[in-house]
Design a protein that fits this description.
alpha+beta; six-stranded antiparallel sheet; 6 strands
């Protein structure tokens, strides 16, 4: 049963950020298991159960990150991650290309959100075509998002805009990746079981945006003349 994270969670994550090496990790491995990995997995499983009960049609699959970085992609960084997460998404051979609901744990904060982080170019082309055909559904979602200022839209815009569907949808239309997320300090609910309720509430709110982005990939290829 998830009972909250702790100051020891924060201390470990700061420690691995500042001492990202095998000897430090091995000497603090039990701290990682007790204060980071175990509560993260407990929270993830409880959230998954609620989402499965309330949204069985989504077919969401739980994935919890490992602390070990891919040795092929270190790029001069240490072998361990200093932020960990779990995600709920449709099963896919390429997780990075699939929209997800996520919770992330970092030394200085925690985050919840909906991310579409590495979609294929054709997927974003399909999103633009969908907006061109009927901007109303996404406009409605964006209006609801604007009522929740704790969430922010984070995008990676193209160097050259692809078009202009109007101010409200412009960031969605002209981005190569999109996320909607909130960020909170590691205090308050973070240290109690109430964090579970916060995460579930955020996921419920984000489900319509997640569904919209998930359906885009199944749209017809706009380059296909048929």
């Amino acid at each position: 049963m998830f009972e909250g994270f702790s100051q020891e969670t924060v201390d470990f994550l700061w420690g691995i950020r500042l001492n990202n090496e095998r000897s430090w990790f091995l000497s603090h491995k039990e701290d990682f298991r007790s204060y980071v990995d175990l509560p993260l997995r407990q929270l993830a499983e409880q959230v998954r159960q609620v989402m499965d009960e309330e949204f069985p049609q989504l077919g969401l699959q739980l994935k919890v990150s490992r602390i070990y970085r891919d040795a092929r992609r270190l790029f001069g960084r240490g072998p361990y991650k200093d932020h960990l997460w779990f995600s709920l998404r449709l099963p896919s051979a390429d997780d990075s290309a699939t929209p997800c609901l996520f919770f992330e744990l970092a030394p200085e904060c925690w985050r919840t959100g909906m991310g579409c982080y590495d979609p294929k170019p054709v997927t974003m082309m399909k999103l633009r075509a969908r907006i061109d055909r009927d901007p109303k559904p996404l406009t409605k979602l964006v209006r609801e998002l604007e009522k929740r200022p704790e969430f922010r839209l984070d995008t990676q815009p193209y160097k050259r805009p692809k078009g202009d569907p109007g101010e409200r949808l412009r960031p969605w239309y002209n981005s190569r990746q999109i996320s909607v997320e909130r960020e909170e300090n590691c205090e308050g609910d973070y240290l109690t079981a109430d964090l579970f309720d916060r995460v579930v509430e955020d996921f419920r709110f984000l489900v319509p945006i997640y569904q919209y982005m998930s359906r885009v990939a199944a749209d017809p290829d706009p380059r296909d003349p048929t």
